[in-house]
Write a structure and sequence with these properties.
- This protein is of the alpha/beta class.
- Helices cover about 35% and strands about 10% of the residues.
- The protein has one domain.
- Strands 1-7-8-6-5-4 form a six-stranded mixed sheet. The protein has a two-stranded antiparallel sheet with strand order 2-3.
- α3 crosses α5 and α5 packs across α7.
- It is globular, with a radius of gyration of 18 Å.
Length: about 280
């Protein structure tokens, strides 16, 4: 899921701009549903005491992780370990390598050959059945995320105006033997968000004009292009995967992000959920 209000705004004509101003102001300063003080989009950013003591640079992502909050019920799977950081970086390496070919397959122009000024990353609890909408969880809509999030519930959110990427915090999952392995659903989420980041930073929307639904559809197409043909899950389904009630890997799926599909992109079916929006069942 992506939020890029400014790109569409600055390319519009003046009458449209004047019509949108009240909506834009509402998006940037909102009264939280909890009834507290108004929040702005900047409230979504981590405060100094919430940031890592030392940001972790991911060379293939060309991004740094500045915040990581684990989930107590899934401590091993959500801890900021070397294995977890390596999975993020490997996912970036393969996704970044395939994205130019994906744009060519989609016949989409872009103004820049290299993405610069890439976002910082926060990894936050995303399962609303475990963490609910508690303070500094990914779906903390009653307070700090209400000014930037379109609604509950999601697994990832790229906010272009903040240059920040918010992700679920579970890169790893325990396999049937109890060994920590790559979580294919985290890889799906990150791949979807990478499409949002690269399409914005390479100037795709500067060339063709921004449309939010087209951005979401393109991200879903990229997920399929990368060989992941399973849908996003709900929080209840996510708990079943983590607790071993159902197989954690979709049938026929290799959990390593190095496995990239050789098939062309496939458009999502009409009415299918966005990759990073998980309806609660």
């Amino acid at each position: 899921m992506s939020r890029s209000p400014f790109r569409a705004l600055i390319t519009s004509r003046l009458p449209r701009f004047l019509a949108i101003v009240p909506l834009a102001l509402t998006a940037f300063v909102a009264t939280p549903s909890s009834g507290g003080a108004p929040v702005s989009r900047f409230d979504a950013l981590p405060q100094p005491n919430e940031q890592l003591g030392q940001p972790v640079w991911l060379p293939h992502c060309a991004m740094k992780v500045v915040e990581w909050r684990s989930t107590s019920a899934l401590r091993a799977e959500t801890a900021p370990t070397e294995q977890a950081y390596a999975l993020l970086d490997d996912t970036c390496r393969y996704a970044f390598g395939q994205f130019p070919g994906f744009l060519r397959a989609k016949k989409l122009p872009h103004l820049r050959d290299r993405a610069t000024s890439l976002p910082a990353i926060s990894l936050l609890p995303g399962n609303v059945l475990l963490d609910g909408k508690s303070l500094r969880a990914l779906n903390d809509l009653p307070s700090r995320f209400e000014a930037v999030a379109p609604g509950c519930c999601y697994w990832g959110l790229y906010v272009d105006s903040l240059n920040h990427l918010f992700l679920r915090n579970d890169p790893l999952i325990k396999d049937p033997d109890g060994t920590l392995a790559p979580n294919p659903r985290f890889v799906r989420t990150l791949t979807h968000e990478i499409s949002h980041v690269l399409s914005a930073r390479l100037g795709v929307w500067d060339a063709v004009g921004y449309d939010r639904q087209r951005d979401e559809d393109l991200a879903e197409d990229f997920v399929s292009y990368m060989g992941m043909h399973f849908p996003a899950e709900s929080s209840a389904e996510d708990l079943d995967f983590h607790r071993g009630r159902v197989p954690y890997a979709p049938p026929g799926t290799d959990t390593m992000p190095s496995v990239v599909a050789k098939t062309p992109a496939v458009a999502p079916q009409a009415g299918s959920p966005n990759a990073n929006t998980s309806p609660q069942r």
